[in-house]
């Protein structure tokens, strides 16, 4: 199936995103089509680039040069030194990529890492991060962050909050929304008609009958039973310490976890440089590499492109199923 090219945003120009885009082109030039939204003056220039006016031009150019949709920025790109003058450009490039994905001109959106502090300083960026901004652009209220690899898919129900705040944030409504969006995303974008969903308990041993906390029995279990009554294959709450060995992983398609580290520790242990961030619940496909801007190594040519390559590959597979 032939799909439209993927839009890849440049992310923070002082980070590793641009050099990873060029490395990804080297790896994928004969496999799939994508185009980079970036300021031509910011490109590292390690590969040939051709500027395009429309995403439809990218496929023919891809085998011979990196297709670039020019998007001028106000500042310079100095590796490791974010320029506040570039903040507006970073935000606009994301919005442009989302518009192209929603219009169908791009089959999906893949986003290189941003630096939230740089966006806040330079443009008073009001969103906590990429995901929330994309939800705003897509005019949806609730989205889910999933980390995916060949070995494992995980969803943290609560994300970037202190561990002490997790029990109060883990409400029945939030868990219900997370399970619903995850199940629909696996059906629609991953081609799994009857997804098997495992829910990790909040407390050690999933509460062990209430001796190690009541949340698993009073909050998680009733929601899980409700989904099971509707015919959704949901199991849990399960003890998190026995959910991630190979035999356990074979019994589910995704693990929904109570908090950030409960999900990301097994993911990064099993697939440290191959994990892909997927946002479920948007009106378009969005993936991103599972790492940050890496200012400390930006411009040195040593950043590993594996996660960016896998993010583009996954976006292509998801778009091919749509």
From TrEMBL:
Quaternary form?
Answer: Homodimer.
- Pathway where this protein functions: Cofactor biosynthesis; pyridoxine 5'-phosphate biosynthesis; pyridoxine 5'-phosphate from D-erythrose 4-phosphate: step 4/5
Further information:
The active site is located at the dimer interface.
- Chief localisation class: cytoplasm
Listed under GO cellular component are:
cytoplasm
Which compartments does it reside in?
A: Cytoplasm
Q: What is its EC number?
A: 1.1.1.262
Record has Membrane as a keyword: no
The name this protein carries in UniProt is: 4-hydroxythreonine-4-phosphate dehydrogenase
Q: Which keywords does this Swiss-Prot/TrEMBL entry list?
A: Cobalt, Cytoplasm, Magnesium, Metal-binding, NAD, NADP, Oxidoreductase, Pyridoxine biosynthesis, Zinc
Q: What does this protein do?
A: Catalyzes the NAD(P)-dependent oxidation of 4-(phosphooxy)-L-threonine (HTP) into 2-amino-3-oxo-4-(phosphooxy)butyric acid which spontaneously decarboxylates to form 3-amino-2-oxopropyl phosphate (AHAP).
Question: Which top EC class applies here?
Answer: oxidoreductase
Gene name?
A: pdxA
Q: Where does substrate bind?
A: 130-131, 268, 277, 286
Per its UniProt record, what Pfam families does this chain match?
PdxA (PF04166)
> What organism is listed for this UniProt entry?
Shimia aestuarii
Needed cofactors, names only, are: Zn(2+); Mg(2+); Co(2+)
The opening ranks of the lineage are: Bacteria, Pseudomonadati, Pseudomonadota, Alphaproteobacteria, Rhodobacterales
The note on the cofactor says: Binds 1 divalent metal cation per subunit. Can use ions such as Zn(2+), Mg(2+) or Co(2+).
**Which residues bind a divalent metal cation per the record?**
160, 205, 260
Q: Which Gene3D superfamilies match?
A: Isopropylmalate Dehydrogenase
Q: Which family does it belong to?
A: Belongs to the PdxA family.
The record's GO molecular-function terms, alphabetically, read:
4-hydroxythreonine-4-phosphate dehydrogenase activity; cobalt ion binding; magnesium ion binding; NAD binding; zinc ion binding
Name a biological process GO annotation. pyridoxal phosphate biosynthetic process
Q: Known catalysed reaction(s)?
A: 4-(phosphooxy)-L-threonine + NAD(+) = 3-amino-2-oxopropyl phosphate + CO2 + NADH
